[in-house]
Amino acid sequence: MSGLTGAPATGDAARPKIEVVGLAKRYADVDAAQPAVLERIDLTVAENEFVSLVGRSGCGKTTLLNIIAGLIAPSAGEVRVDGKAVTGPGGGKGMVFQQQALFPWLTALQNVEFGARTRALSPAARRREAEQLIDLVGLAGYAERYPAALSGGMQQRVAIARALALDPQILLMDEPFGALDEITRIDMQHELLRVWSSRRKTVVFVTHSISEALMLSDRVAVMRAHPGVIAAEFRIDLPRPRQRTHAEIVALHDRIWRHLN
Question: Within 10 A of 46 (CB to CB), how many other CB atoms are there?
């Protein structure tokens, strides 16, 4: 189905990797008269699919991502991964945040090795995996540098490599490029797609940028606030890499923008 139809995109025929069913979230300390943070969220994500959540600040994108991650419990509904309810973090889910949260006392390579610590690998195997991931994210030659000696974009590459070192089935990304300048951000979008094509993962990606979502995603879920709901979904049936000036991309950008207003 073309994204230009504006109709909700349909899920994969097989059982989804992620199922969000009837999800709602209200914080106990919020006035009961205030709208819920999230209300009636239903979302499916197929295995190896790249889905972006787009919306204005306060619409609940990060809250939804954290519930999928198992970091926050929903007030109603549930999240299932491979048909099993998510009750906490882990379970094949890796996260990348806007703030890289690298350990400043560890080198880039050591930070990535730390990500593999929970896997049943020997120290030598962990080192080999970390070296391969450092190369994969384009940081060959920077493995022994500490985070303070790396640019913001390089630090985010290390953060992505560290998340991949967990060998997660699902990669959850919360505005990972939001703090970068526009040129570096576009470079990182290309880098992420290259890494994703090499090590296919199921990705849920939170962003404020419609353009970023259109460049990266198989599908875009548009969220609105008060309460936080999914207002529309759009499938993007265009090969990657995509041109920002492609007529279908421009038209879809306009449609998504209208759903945000």
Answer: 18
* DSSP strands (E only) in 110-169: none
Token pair recorded at residue 73: 């419990």
CATH of the domain at 22: 3.40.50.300
CA gap 143, 146 in Å, rounded: 8
Would you say residue 189 lies in a domain? Answer: no
Each residue's pLDDT tens digit, 193-218: 999 999 899 999 999 999 999 999 99
Does 251 fall in a domain?
yes
Number of structural domains in the chain: 1
pTM for this model (two decimals):
0.89
Assess if residue 53 is contained within a domain.
yes
Residue 16: which of 52, 39, 48, 54 has the closest Cα?
48
237 lies in a domain?
yes
State phi, psi for 136 to the nearest 5 degrees: -60, -40
Angle 232-177-253 (CA atoms, 0-180°, nearest 5)?
35
The C-alpha R_g of the chain, in whole angstroms, comes to 18
> Using 50, 70 and 90 to split pLDDT, how confident is the model at 32?
low
The residue type found at 186 is I
pLDDT of residue 90: 85
